[in-house]
From TrEMBL, chains A, B:
Residues 1-20 are annotated as: Disordered. The keyword Signal does not apply. SMART domains: HTH_LACI (SM00354). CDD domains: HTH_LacI, PBP1_CatR-like. This is LacI family transcriptional regulator. It comes from Actinomadura algeriensis. Keywords: DNA-binding, Transcription, Transcription regulation. InterPro entries: HTH_LacI, LacI/GalR-like_sensor, Lambda_DNA-bd_dom_sf, Peripla_BP_I.
Length: 356, 356
């Protein structure tokens, strides 16, 4: 059964009324606050003054309200929804692995779906919790509109984001990696090897994680007194094809780079291929650094130097945060970033003497 | 709510009785058949005589029974469980992608879990449907005991297997690929290139798919009049490490093979690495064929010749079969094998003249 937290919005599919429970309007009137504030308390948000929170929580308890303020947000179904932007990368399976492991330990099932935006079948992702009677959503590398967020909030669905494309509101719980530090470390490694013409291939330019990595790259160059050449920064999708196409462009430049920092391991594999077709050896003629540290990295020829993202741990933390929200315990800070770490393998070396 | 199809076994966790419904024993007595036969009809099994099935189905309808014979097995929750042996391979995500796509189109959620065998938390996989109130299970590359199967049957849970390790009963619906034909095609390709010393690295020796591929390999050699050298057939896990370790052993033989047919693309990547460390070039000194055709194959250096398994389609067919079972429509044949296909890329070539 889906428990409602307000009465005015239209019913999401599958929702049922809990007839004997007071509306948010009643609670709000008794507490002398707005309905929005009651809703914030119910959803475990952190932007409510402590005194107000306590007053609202006491009323919710009095009315035996099932939200987190009431006592615990009931784990109604023992299910959560994991909604992914795509399943076309081993990246996604690493996140899934962490979410599944944490949820299995806590006796919670994970319903896995892809983001779909249209309103017909298959249903839009924000309708899935109502459809599956699940208690919350982990949304991975996706864009969220204010409307979607409001819809989830009305339905009393808890939400955690992993690597969000955008952050519509600063108080939503989200989990990521230290992308800026990763971009910095990768670039500093190449600078220390003696490279000066260092290119970067980012993911899509509108993604937060891309922006943070590019900023880390720029800062490393600036700290080393190397001027940032805008022509050496390219954007593309995170897949093999993106890395291949962008590397072909970079290697065709009159003054080609001697090193490439790719935004994902799959892009780095595309860069390997482009180098091979151009008759260049990795790392003798071209150094390549990836991002992610997928299990396959150490099996590439040569094994790939890359920035490790703790993907499985990110999945675990996202699941733990969501389950804590459902227990009425909001996270200490809404945004958590887990540490990235450079893994040096065999795809990076000093530039050839003629290039220096 | 979990609907029960019999009353005698102990309750699975989360199960609730549907009190007004007759027991299987009553139906069986009225139909003049055994309880086991009623259970078979309920579970959509094919090994019941048509006249008997019709008689039982009519009684089930009379009693408003919710099984597939009754009219439709109610899609109680709109959820199915997808249980995987592991999430440590991109292989699994391809199956998941197909299951998710098919289920999304049919408005069904997919709860993803790993096989766990212990009875404590996390719960054993065969308890998941009761826990999640799901209608059925797709079990991937796993072993199933008769006890587990009986437990699912008692709980009225429909079941489809993908690439089962063993087949405990021939009437369970299962989906696989034409592994034998794939083993044959891979080996014939190497023979046509002129190879005679062809090694094979299988997956675990007790898996059905391994046995079928090894048999295809043997048949190809025998048809070409090449004696099968048992020392050239090795078994290992399907991961990089397995391919690496077995290739090291094979390349250390006094009369080493000139070609290796690996049981998975990940094994083939391990073989690449072992060849590189031995100072051998692929394909000039060693030809390598993989199995699966993961998206990464065409991005390896050199791009990998492999046997394509239609993994996403296998996931789709498994989901479709399960949803049909839930609608009371058993599959025409319990076992379906989708076609494999050889994809020739750049990792295979004639053996070096000195080796011929």
């Amino acid at each position: 059964m889906t428990v409602r937290t307000t009465e005015d919005p239209p019913d999401p599919p599958g929702a049922q009324h809990a007839p004997s429970r007071p509306t948010l309007a009643v609670i709000a009137a008794e507490a002398g606050v707005s309905q929005a504030t009651v809703s914030k308390v119910l959803n475990g948000r952190t932007d409510v003054a402590a005194a107000t929170r306590e007053r609202v929580e006491a009323l919710l308890r009095d009315h035996n309200y099932p939200g987190p303020g009431g006592s615990r947000r009931a784990r109604r179904s023992g299910l959560i929804d994991l909604v992914l932007a795509g399943l076309d990368s081993p990246w996604a399976v690493e996140i899934l692995r962490g979410v599944e492991a944490e949820c299995a330990e806590q006796g919670t099932g994970v319903v896995v779906s892809l983001v779909r935006e249209d309103d017909a079948r298959p249903p839009s992702w924000q309708n899935l919790p109502a459809l599956h009677h699940s208690d919350g959503v982990i949304l991975v590398t996706s864009r969220m509109t204010d409307r979607q967020r409001a819809q989830l909030e009305r339905a009393g669905v808890a939400l955690v984001l992993v690597d969000p494309v955008n952050l519509p509101d600063s108080d939503i719980a989200s989990v990521g990696a230290t992308n800026w530090a990763g971009g910095l470390a990768a670039t500093e490694h190449l600078i220390e090897l003696g490279h000066r013409r260092i290119a970067m291939i980012g993911g899509p330019g509108d993604m937060l994680c891309t922006q943070a990595r590019v900023d880390g790259y720029r800062t490393a160059l600036e700290r080393a007194g190397i001027e940032v050449d805008r022509g050496l920064v390219r954007y593309g999708d995170f897949h093999h094809e993106g890395g291949f196409a962008r590397t072909r462009e970079l290697l065709a430049l009159p003054d080609r780079p001697t090193a490439i920092f790719a935004g994902s391991d799959q892009q780095a594999m595309g860069a390997y291929q482009a180098a091979r077709l151009a008759g260049l050896r990795v790392p003798e003629d071209l150094s390549v650094v990836g991002f992610d540290d997928l299990p396959t990295c150490e099996w590439l020829s040569p094994p790939l130097t890359t920035v490790r993202q703790p993907l499985e741990e990110m999945g675990r933390v996202a699941a733990r945060t969501l389950l804590q929200l459902l227990d009425g315990r909001p996270p200490l800070t809404p945004r958590v970033e887990l540490a990235t770490e450079l893994r040096v393998r065999a795809s990076t070396a000093p530039p050839a003497p003629s290039e220096q």
